[in-house]
């Protein structure tokens, strides 16, 4: 008991004044993210692996050019950006899903959430600050990954399907790819906040992206087609295409908007739940 | 000042906290005592806004915890369950909590020093022993230099040195004018730490009084007499108005008369005494007696002989 400073007396107003701002909470959430080593490593590995796989897949596309049928060749020629971003980035989106769920569910599984809510008893600002910091981080990493992938993939593809950043739709697709990853991260974070359990949350989100979404494509008729097109990852990924392809039901920004809508709904549900449920 | 007014919490059809009202005053250590499952932790979670009460209200300085702007400087809390991300160092755990209230890095280092974790401050909290975890929890509670402290079973997992440390810490925090509210299921621990006791059983208030009063009220003095002339002496003492029972070993357990008077009576009749010991009924037993009807997880314990 050496260095206790003068403690709060009853005269200090304890409520009704200005509480800690969102800036304080975001700084705190940033400390949380950067001080868990596994998160830092996951992000670094994610970037490296994505770039490596992008190089690998585009190289394979070029090597197997002659074996590909005419339709495939036409698609790659029409939309080289979509071809590049449709390879390694698929890996990134899984990692982003896992990290998004972990960002909040790990607080519940370790009990950290109790310390967090003791410090900030109003639930919604905690969710807002966490979501904002995580989304900004994924946006930054996502843009690096997207541009990195493009600049690695474009020269490899150059002999078969030349593309440059200045071509129509290319810059939008590459920048949009980072936006897509950030939104997907928020989507996963909201799901993690609702499910509150790391393993279950990851299973549900990854299962949704990897299993449910492709399976919805098998639904018969135009109803099935519409359901598939409006699923969050299917819709959001439209932004990474340089040009619309035949049979697309949503444009690039429309698609990203659909993902944003899904995310907003899930975040709203998460916010209401956090307020209502016991921690 | 912490106040509970008619607090009630149900889980399904089970009432865990039942119409509980009490006040935790500043300047003293208030012990919160009850058997396991009595609802102590739940009550504390209600005070701290982690759970919502089904009825009643809990306030700190007149304000519900959830409406506090900078709660860490009003109430510091140590919860029974761990509340630390296992992958984060003690320093960063405290730093991220401090940053939510604009508390500086210097204060973080100060509390780490105060609880004696300086040498492991940058190690992952996942590798901490139970005792180190408790110290980290205390550090988090002290972070905002709060006027009140809520500590759930703080001596859990601490070694004897740690237990003495926490006792002294709680006493000095109370001496500085803070309200200290500390739960325990161990009567003897509370007897040496708390100035005031709030005892609950099955979520209901059983006692709310000073520790002294509680001890006075709930323990009875008895005298153990070992003598070869048991039958004679017993008759003598009964005539004096004492209550005498024979123990299993054939000794006398005497209440209602003081040891010197027993010795005088024995000497006057020339009876031999081998032992004459004044005993105070154990506080632990008194506590068990008090909460007997309110014990949640009743085990079939064979009745122990001894103090009646």
UniProtKB/TrEMBL annotation, chain A:
Q: Which UniProt keywords apply?
A: Membrane, Transmembrane, Transmembrane helix
User: Superkingdom of this entry's organism?
Assistant: Bacteria
Look up keyword Membrane and say if it applies: yes
- Cellular component annotations (GO), alphabetically ordered: plasma membrane
Record keywords: ATP-binding included? Answer: no
Membrane-spanning intervals of the chain: 40-62, 82-105, 126-157, 169-191, 198-216, 255-274
Q: Recall the GO molecular function terms of this protein's record.
A: ABC-type transporter activity
Protein name (Swiss-Prot/TrEMBL): ABC transporter permease
Report the source organism: Streptomyces mexicanus
